[in-house]
Amino acid sequence: MRLKKKDLLGISELDPDEIRLIIDTARNFKEVSEREIKKVPTLRGRTVINLFYEPSTRTRTSFEIAAKRMSADAINISISQSSVSKGETLKDTAKNLEAMRPDCIVVRHPVAGTPHMLSRHLNCSVINAGDGMREHPSQALLDLLTIMEHKEEVSGLKVTIVGDIAHSRVARSNIYALTKLGAEVTLSGPPTMIPPGIEALGSGGAVTVEYDFNKAINGADVIMMLRLQLERQGAPLFPTAREYSNLYGLSSERLKGAKDDLLILHPGPINRGVEITPDVADGPYSLIIDQVTNGVAVRMALFYLLLGSSRDDRAEGNTSEEDG
Amino acid sequence: MIVLDERAIARALTRIAHEILEKNTGSRDLVLLGIPTRGNALAQRLGAKIASIEGEEVLTGSVDATLYRDDIGLTGDNPPLKEMDIQFSIDGKIVVLVDDVLFTGRTIRAAMNALMDFGRPAAIQLAVLIDRGHRELPIRPDYVGKNLPTAPNEGVRVRLEEMDGVTSVILIDKTSEKK
Amino acid sequence: MKRLAIAGGRVFDPEAGIDGLFDIIAMGGRVASIRPSTGDMEAFSGDGWTLVDATGKLVLPGLIDIHTHLREPGFEYKETITSGVAAAAAGGFTAILCMANTEPVNDCASVTRYILNKAAEALGVRVLPIGAVSVGLKGEKLSEMAELAGAGCVAFSDDGLPVVDGALMRRALEYSLLFGKGGLPVISHAEDPSIACSGAMNEGPTSTRLGLPGIPSAAEDSLVARDIALAELTGAHLHIAHVSTRGAVELIRAARKRGVNVTSEVTPHHLMLDDSAVDGFDTDAKMSPPLRSRDDIEAVREGLIDGTIDAIATDHAPHSPVEKDIEFSSAANGIIGLETALALTLKLVNEGILPLETAVKSLTSGPAKVMGLAMGQVKIGTDADFTVVDTEREWTVDPKKLLSKSKNTPFAGWKLKGMASHTIVAGEVVFTLKD
Lengths: 324, 179, 435
What we know:
The structure holds 3 protein chains of 3 kinds.
Chain A: H1 16-29, E1 47-52, H2 58-69, E2 73-78, H3 90-98, E3 104-109, H4 114-120, E4 125-131, H5 137-148, E5 158-162, H6 169-180, E6 184-188, E7 207-209, H7 213-217, E8 222-225, H8 241-248, E9 263-265, H9 278-281, H10 288-307
Parallel strand pairs in A: 1-2, 1-3, 3-4, 5-6, 5-8, 6-7, 8-9
Helix pairs in contact in A: 1-5, 1-10, 2-10, 3-4, 5-6, 5-10
Chain B: E1 2-4, H1 6-23, E2 30-34, H2 38-54, E3 59-62, E4 94-102, H3 106-116, E5 123-131, E6 143-147, E7 154-159, H4 161-164, E8 168-173, H5 174-177
Parallel strand pairs in B: 2-3, 2-4, 4-5, 5-6
Antiparallel strand pairs in B: 1-8, 7-8
Helix pairs in contact in B: 1-2
Chain C: E1 3-13, E2 18-27, E3 30-36, E4 49-53, E5 58-61, E6 63-68, H1 81-90, E7 93-98, H2 109-122, E8 126-131, H3 145-151, E9 155-157, H4 166-176, E10 186-188, H5 193-196, E11 201-202, H6 205-210, E12 214-215, H7 217-234, E13 238-240, H8 246-257, E14 262-266, H9 268-272, H10 294-305, E15 311-312, H11 321-324, H12 341-350, H13 356-363, H14 365-370, E16 386-396, E17 415-425, E18 428-432
Parallel strand pairs in C: 1-4, 1-5, 6-7, 7-8, 8-9, 9-10, 10-13, 11-12, 13-14, 14-15
Antiparallel strand pairs in C: 1-2, 2-3, 5-16, 16-17, 17-18
Helix pairs in contact in C: 1-2, 2-3, 4-7, 7-8, 8-10
């Protein structure tokens, strides 16, 4: 098995078998991070460029650690969007990067589709680490791994995603990932945060919208809280953080009557006391810290799957196990 | 063509168990690490035999060499990762690597590199059920169930009860199998 | 005296009610006679004659594009007046109106004269400038509209930008009544920026899927509604540029029923492409207004057929890779259109979506009437501007082969049928299609 494309631009382009391959591979990679020597030589001599046009600590660090644990060389390039020089096209950017001979470029960009546009001019692999409001595939995969560590079957799970769905690439990637594996996804948030036609993103499983938070989380197997982008207050999606918290904050009060095996996820960083109360964030259902651990394993798996197989179709698999 | 049947395999493993104990003067500091997937089952079988001879349990585990292979990025598909299970320190231990078939020696090289990331064994020894020749690296087994010289077009399939429902070693013609 | 004959073709002018095989003879740049074709070309082969053999072809009044961006002065790396005129001629246009968003802006007579001088040097298609509504397109104070009109501007627009300030738009409309008979049109680029925000495409299921900020139809509808109300208030002539929504079509239809002096245009791309063209993040599918939904396409087609929309206009907007081959949200709006408009319109005819009559009117008499121009009809005594169309000519859109300096078209690779074989301005053949 291998991934069909050289790039990972979104969950939308993966089929369910590819998603399962990544998750299964990531499960195996978790062990490497438990070792005293947390490093395998697998991608020795490969170069990974983390190209971040948006500030990010968590995701960039996770990709960097993953690359280093695979023995790849990781280089971080941070570009503030405001300093992008006028007059250079994306093709110019791509060709300049390619000239450094990377094997993989991990790109985060505030504008949807930029990883696509870059990948068109690049021979190396491109991993989308978040593009605008479109997709954040590695986040959805680590969420999926976290869920699958606790639930045998994703199919039939009732997953509720809460918050600013409209501006969330995490939500979109999770909708694709979960429904491709047959989960039922409920989206909840004020109408200002639910974009038109979001239900159409579901394939396999169903996507429904429920403005009423209590109804939305009733009977849920997994609740995924999104970070409230307080800095986005320029476009008023809600009157105040206080009112938002009253309507959509996850508190232990609301969790009365929740399933015993409920899982609570949050992509982080959390706004304690806004979308989630501290006791819930640190409570028994919460897997927020597991998500971070799993993030490294998922990203190691992605590097392995994208860089550890030949993209040359003539090199057919010689992996039969009896010959050693 | 069946090369070894169930009873022959059992006899070979019994002999190897005795050889291991003889060479290492007992099972003290002995650790058996199988190379997945069939090496694991063989390591378990060997462990059980040694325990019944010595009356003392032997530590067993599994060492997956996939991430240490020298052909990563050269094969069409990603080699699937397998079980890595070493729940104890291997520092100062005598590690016996166990595999079903020894061929080019590349997997053993990879497995030894993997082991080094887990500690510093006193010694590493190699036990295989079949040695089919065609070595590409200077590696030689310490314990062999059966030497089986093969032609390039031939393949060796080891089947074990634990995973295959049947125990035998067969020699096959790869050219006819591809159809 | 120079003599030109366009002989043997099917002359089609639905406005004048002409449809048949006629020979048109022009003398001194004007139409001298229109007579049934005899099929005899010998008569036009003598000394001093230019013969356009239109046998098997369609002869139309010269096509008029009331919405182009020629980029000169200021952005000559995108398009010059010379290259734009060449593209227009190749596209079958005999007259084009160019928007004011140059650098400097065409908000004073000297810029207007510069454009006209350059166009005269380019020798070919008629270039009619549109003056800015506001100084520097800033939307703050009116440009000297009288001076602009005196220098040759035929309409006013801040196109590319809406006139956000309602009071300024009102004054522009009122002031426009000063000029000529019934005033000169004020053209509205109708999009309320406070609703559109930083949108990069149409708002709908596709923008949700692509994760791009959306511009709802309401941004266009609301400003169309405001401008219609202002036109009603002032009695001035309002022209709505590039109508793209069902809401706008319905507002214009209702206003015209009430007798409001409002006209409108639609682009070929808004007649054919929906917002799914943005899939794959092709910035050549990024324009203002954005490509809309299938339903909006149906609505603008209906509007064109029932006469609510008067004209097809290209909104020819050349951009270089520096503006286009960048992040989608930052990429410039617009596509080139002069060389594809005719064939795309004929495609709609061939697919049975538009009657040929509507298609031809929308490119000739329709735009001429909107802008008050004495052209767009086959009539004795008028300027001999004609477009001869080889309706059977099949071709594939190859940006590299287009004459426009810029190559930003979403129609690259489209197989089209129909091309101008001769473009004739004032009795002179300014473009001949090579075999």
